[in-house]
Amino acid sequence: xxxxxxxxxxxxxxxxxxxxxxxxxxxxxxxxxxxxxxxxxxxxxxxxxxxxxxxxxxxxxxxxxxxxxxxxxxxxxxxxxxxxxxxxxxxxxxxxxxxxxxxxxxxxxxxxxxxxxxxxxxxxxxxxxxxxxxxxxxxxxxxxxxxxxxxxxxxxxxxxxxxxxxxxxxxxxxxxxxxxxxxxxxxxxxxxxxxxxxxxxxxxxxxxxxxxxxxxxxxxxxxxxxxxxxxxxxxxxxxxxxxxxxxxx
Length: 249
What we know:
alpha+beta, four-stranded antiparallel beta sheet, 4 helices, 26% strand
C-alpha cells in the first residue's frame, strides 16, 4: 500500500505570521509630509484666530504665594460672639432748634427801620408849627404886577418830626378858591426835626401870580395869606401879612 501523506492542520487566521519590511527613506519622507500638512493646518488656524500666548500673571503669582505661605491656607480662628445682655437705653430727648424762615427784602426792611429809629416819631397833629413869609418877590408891568417868588420860614415847635408838603397862596381881592396857588416845597423842607427851622425861596407856579389894583385895591398894602399843608392836605399852620406890591422887590 502506498501511504498517503499526513495532512497537516491549516493554521488559523490569527496564527499567520506577517513579516514587515520598513524602508527608512520612505518612512522619513512620509513623516516629513505629515509635518508639512500639520504645519500648513496650524498656520491656517492661527491666521483666523491667533492663540492667546499671554500668561495669567495674577494666577501664577497667587499660586506661588499660596505655595510659599502655608499659613494663608489655615482658616482664621472663630471669634466668640459676646452674648452679654445689655439693658435698653432710652433715647434722650434732643432739643429742637426752631427753624428760622428767611424774610425777603431783609436789607431793605433794616434800612427803613434804621432810618425811622434815627428820625424818631412823626407828628401828624399840629398845634405848634409856625410858618411865615419873609418877603414877596414881585415884577411890575406899569399897570399890573406878578408875585414870582416867596421867601418863607418854617419853624417846628412840635415834640416830633413834621413833614410839610406844600404852601397854598392867596392874594387879597382874589377870593375865588380857583385863584389860590399851590406851591410844592423842595425836599429839604419836607422833613423838619423838632426845634429846627427851615428858610427857602420858592418859585410861584406856573409863571407867577398876576394881580392888579383893580382887584387888590391899594397896592402898598396887599394882604397875602399862606397855609402850610402836609401830604394828606392837613393844615399845619397859617400866616397873614400885608406886603407892598407896588414896586419890584
